């Protein structure tokens, strides 16, 4: 029996494939390579020393998904596949609803048909909207400011309704905060196409000289130093959180925040990155981005109490590993 990891060659999915294999699971990967490279599979096989079955399919394609379930006995699904660029989702909402919502329905239907009982879903802290911090799993979902966030809230609702109709299915909705960092080997990490949307790849590309300077979106927020505060989590911790969620999932729907519970500002990231890597990050303050919140972070106690999982790696680890990966990129030619 295997765990099907959709989007398993992407940033979080690839680290989770590695963590699952380390924990003793067999894994099958499905990815259409819309935002990843086939070489990531080679790297994963090299790191884990395992042959990992891979299907280059679109998981909105019902026939392709059903064929995969026919071929492989699947024990559970971890569904990472989706588009994730907030700004792009505002410009191309239909593309986002089509991919993110349809993929979830297609996979849930396959699970129903093939009686695969475990499903772990990549959700996001975005679904909390502008609730009071720290965000707790018991809070009502508030409207998000963009179609991407709405696709995550919809995905959650679809899966809840599905389990309401048949309580033998076991679903874990994992609300991620801000994953950064990379595998300590420097072989796996985040390497977005084009200008990065997220802070850390932007910082590492400035450090490498690919980009001239970091744009800091606003320094007049009501935070300690005026810059936005987020709950950054090492992607290796996040990956291990998935393994814990899978190991503990029982029939019904379970929601967990995967964050550290601590907020870090943009300036703190820059200073930590400069200190641990001994490299200067030139930056410029620019206007706030519409829709950005001043600060948010997780209440991460539920995952600790129920899954026995908590984020162990430090901000220093995140900055060091992210830079190590960026420096290795040309060597391994994964873009
Ligand atoms: N990175 C974050 O900050 C963050 C935060 C919260 C939630 N998430 C969610 O976590 C998941 C993984 O994020 P990531 O950062 O690893 O993104 P990513 O873009 O690196 O990985 C997604 C992978 O899914 C693949 N994919 C996309 N649509 C597909 C489809 N229809 N069929 C098959 N493969 C498809 C892409 O090729 C890519 O390899 C996404 O669902 C994302 O929305 C990410």
Characteristics:
single chain, 335 residues, alpha/beta, Rossmann fold, seven-stranded parallel sheet, two-stranded parallel ribbon, 11 helices, 17% strand, binds nicotinamide-adenine-dinucleotide
Task: Summarize this structure briefly.
With 335 residues, the chain is of the alpha/beta class. It contains eleven helices and 13 strands.
| N- to C-terminal distance | 32 Å
β-strand number: 13
- What is the ordering of alpha helices and beta strands? EHEHEHEHHEHEEHEEEHEEHEHH
Content-based structural category: alpha/beta
The Cα radius of gyration reads: 19 Å
Q: Which small molecules are bound?
A: nicotinamide-adenine-dinucleotide
Low-pLDDT stretches are none
**Mean pLDDT value:** 96
Count of DSSP helices? 11
CATH topology value of the domain at 2-181 and 232-260 and 300-312? Rossmann fold
- What is the CATH superfamily classification of the domain at 2-181 and 232-260 and 300-312? NAD(P)-binding Rossmann-like Domain
What CATH architecture of the domain at 2-181 and 232-260 and 300-312 do you see? 3-Layer(aba) Sandwich
Helix content: 40-55%
Lateral strand order in the biggest sheet: 3-2-1-4-5-6-11
State the CATH class of the domain at 2-181 and 232-260 and 300-312: Alpha Beta
